[in-house]
């Protein structure tokens, strides 16, 4: 039985960043750029107006005020996406919309609010062929310069950047319809055991629905990888071997169940026949019966995580070991889930010398997190996992955490969406 840190180190040393693909822009959200992105254009491509107003020569507005407007002759209008009709000379103005290109000769834009346009519209005897400027403008006022956001040739996004909504916007501003990214890993998931029943079928006596497969697939999908559900392998080695061979085209194979010491726990045997085992059993609770190794597929060695069959054990071991492996494949590094310090509000015992991950719900009061067990802690009780915000980590050498003791709590991937982590509760 090895320690958690050693198990994680062995797993991470056995997986690598995957290769590049060209992904459609929106489908690249959550993926990592595989190359530096340089701009082939200026953004914006030309000087343009930051306001609806009038393009003028700043010198023509000198001394302008509400009491002493400078009246300029209006020579045209430019809409966003339009083109200037001609230059702006001294004593002239061109009506211009936000985003429209600045006409030659103009060096400032006076917004509508600083003109008498509204007064002229209400007074039908005043011509709109002229406009009164009510405030002196400085050169460059309300003009967005060409290349102000991104100059041509600039490094816009470096390799290793995660593509999120702002990055999509930046790439779209460069006219890119596809992005060079690290491809998403395909994670094959196999449930094992005669007791499992596929979803959608009647539940016979003595059977349970295959919840592990779907909980794991959801964890994989949430990371941005691609889950591939392979179905249930019955407690016959030939069936499990067939499923493993079908799954070996994936980048990672997950099995749940079949890794303890029961008469029908065959994953370790099939792993030994179809590949090699690196380790079996980790000093943690829940999740002790964890197997790791490789399946052989021609010249390929496909990493395999044999997760425990109990639903909570399966989810926790994936969070601790599978999650960083998948993130490394995606080029996202191997950062663990974030932790916070919390005051434990009830006693927790840990008597078997393993690291204990206790499911807890969190509240925040007076700037401090407080933790309580989220329900019964049996490794088959999935409902308390659904209620948990995080996992209180009880070290191997700690036999008891008393009420009032401080503990480190690993925040679960989905807990950031729970209001209890950000709102004060009394």
Tell me what you see in this structure.
The structure is a single chain. By secondary structure, this protein is of the alpha/beta class. It has eight helices and 27 strands. A six-stranded mixed β-sheet has the order 15-12-16-20-19-17, sandwiched between helices. α1 packs across α7. The relative contact order is 0.12. The model has no long low-confidence stretch (mean pLDDT 93).
Which short descriptors sum up this protein?
426 residues; alpha/beta; 5-stranded mixed β-sheet; elongated
Question: What is the fold's blueprint, element by element?
Answer:
Layout: H1 4-13, E1 20-24, E2 37-38, E3 48-49, E4 53-56, E5 70-78, E6 92-96, E7 108-111, H2 117-122, E8 130-133, E9 143-144, E10 155-157, H3 165-173, E11 178-182, E12 186-192, E13 196-197, E14 208-209, H4 211-222, E15 226-233, H5 237-247, E16 252-256, H6 267-274, E17 275-280, E18 284-285, E19 291-297, E20 300-307, H7 311-329, E21 339-344, E22 348-349, E23 355-365, E24 368-373, H8 383-386, E25 390-394, E26 400-401, E27 406-411
Parallel strand pairs: 5-6, 12-15, 12-16, 13-14, 16-20, 18-23, 21-24
Antiparallel strand pairs: 1-11, 2-10, 3-9, 4-6, 4-7, 5-8, 17-19, 19-20, 21-27, 22-26, 23-24, 23-25, 25-27
